[in-house]
Amino acid sequence: MNPLDTYNGALTRRQFFRKSGSGLGAVALASLLGKPAFANTQDLSSLMAGIPQIAPKAKRAIYISLIGAPSQLDLYDYKPDLSKRFKEDLNQWLKSQGQRLTGMTSGQATFPLAPSIFKFSQHGQSGAWISELLPWTGRMADDICIIKSMHTDAINHEPANQLICTGSMQSGKASMGSWLSYGLGSMNQDLPSFVVLHATHSSPYSNVQAISSRLWGSGFLAGKHAGVALRSLGDPVLFLKDAPGVSRDMRRKMLDGLNQLNQSSYDNVGDPEIQTRMQQYEMAFRMQASVPELTDLSSEPEHIYSLYGEDSKTRGTFANSTLMARRLLERGVRFVQIFHRGWDQHGSLPRDLASQCKDVDQGSFGLIQDLKQRGMLEDTLVIMGGEFGRTIYSQGNLTEKDYGRDHHPRCFSLWMAGGGIKGGQVHGETDEMSYNIVKDPVHVRDLHATILHTLGLDPERLTFKFQGLDQRLIGVEPARVVKELFA
Predict the structure, then answer these.
(1) Which of 212, 337, 380, 386 has its CA 20 to 30 A from that of 414?
(2) How much is the pTM?
(3) Residue 121, φ and ψ in degrees, nearest 5
(4) Taking each helix axis from N to C terminus, what angle separates 272-295 and 318-330, rounded to the nearest 10 degrees?
């Protein structure tokens, strides 16, 4: 007896019962709704995944990840009374709070209090206090909701970034964008449902954290749900152009032949990854035509460049990335994640934070205003923030004009806009030290639950069976949808 035949027979038998349930149900549903309802779906699995579990407030999202963790004290969490306590040693007070120390400050003899040197002013109907480093953000205060009561479990960058991007500090989990692709399916046939952009930063001094594809990988989900990174230098995607001497028609015939071989392998073995491979080959072929048109910004009028800022004309900048994100959403991309690194200011914070804020301030303003004027903001969710906060005490030497801050997981700030989020509000409060949360805490898991809910997915029901467990983005610990954020 051929062992392969035995294996294939057993696998086919299991698949028969599974497909009999889901497959016939999908066919029945398609007959009721008609062909137009599924015009953008590419296969049966995406057809079934593309049905929201609850009424969605948004159908797409942009997540702007500020890697390195910006200081909430210097941007959004205004604490004016601390200026009177400049250089006060917090050593004993921190011990009473059970402060976790990183290896970078554990050897300090003193922990001098470092008030922010930046001026704050109130903006919008909510009177939100926003730093002078973010003048453009202040102008859109009525469009955004600032959450000042975020908190996380991790105190170092790698686990904190994995937690906020994948819902777990352990490697191998599916990223947020992959979960959205899996749960909602694709809205287009020519581009991936999840695209990643890496924006450059202008400060030559910034401490740049290394990040890896784990933050946008599909983990245990099918490979087609992984984020596709568009490069800022050279071709946006490697091997985008056909090889010399290979015409478009020849490429199509080669792909058709390869698909026949893969289909034969799938019929014999039944491995779903073979189908994924076939779909990815087809996507790559279509991207050869769609990506050059996507990345050609020559059609954008001058007033759009003025809205996003002059940097939007330079490929790879943050402003250029936000403009590219809008173009991706227009073409049916479900989820765009922009990574902007260099926010890890352990020293020289006033110099480096100012440079980082200048990179992102007008670009993020331009994105929100552009989406709003196109009627897209109401069904597009936008999130911008880092992976944790920064300490009230200084790391290393402290002067009246210079200081650094260490990692602080107990509280940090981010903002959300669009997708049913009520703009012009501030959610949550911290104590007088910007150390502990005293009102309306929002854990990273709560943020994930809220994002899924906004896009029409029940965070409790969005699961995938792997290693004997029902895997979820929100994990197994309690998570709640922060309904107070919605209009």
Answers:
(1) 212
(2) 0.85
(3) -145, 160
(4) 120
More confident residue, 43 or 474: 474
Tokens of 170: 């352990």
| Whether pLDDT at 50 is above 70 | no
Residue 47 lies in a domain: no
What is the CATH number for 438?
3.40.720
User: pLDDT band for position 262 (50/70/90)?
Assistant: confident
Inside any domain, residue 2: no
Alpha-carbon distance 124 to 23, whole Å? Answer: 52
SS3 call for 152 = coil
Q: In the block, which residue shows the tokens 């953000």?
A: 137
Q: Which two tokens stand for residue 126?
A: 């909510």
Q: Which domain, by its residues, includes 110?
A: 60-237+298-485
pLDDT one-digit tens code per residue, 290-342: 677 787 888 999 999 999 999 999 999 999 999 999 999 999 999 999 999 99
How far apart, in whole angstroms, are the C-alpha atoms of residue 76 and residue 148?
Answer: 7
Better-predicted residue by pLDDT, 343 or 238: 343
Total domains, the chain: 1
Residue corresponding to tokens 């402060």 = 99
Alpha carbons 190 and 187: distance in angstroms, whole number: 10
Q: Retrieve residue 234's tokens.
A: 């050279």
Q: In whole angstroms, how far apart are CA 336 and each of 65, 216, 270, 321?
A: 11, 10, 32, 10
> 299: buried, middle or exposed (CB in 10 Å: 19+, 13-18, 0-12)?
exposed
pLDDT at residue 45 in the model = 42
Q: What are the phi and psi torsion angles at 203 (to 5°)?
A: -75, 125
Q: Which residue has the tokens 């955004």?
A: 144
Distance CA 28, CA 23 (A): 9
Express as a percent the part of the chain with pLDDT over 70: 85
Q: For residue range 178-227, what is the model confidence (pLDDT) as tens digits?
A: 999 999 998 988 889 999 999 998 877 777 888 999 999 999 999 889 99
**Does residue 94 lie in a domain region?**
yes
Q: Are 62 and 367 in contact (CB under 8 A)?
A: yes
Residue 315 lies in a domain: yes
Token digits of residue 135: 């003048």
**DSSP secondary structure letters along 431-451:** -TTSSSEEE--EEHHHHHHHH
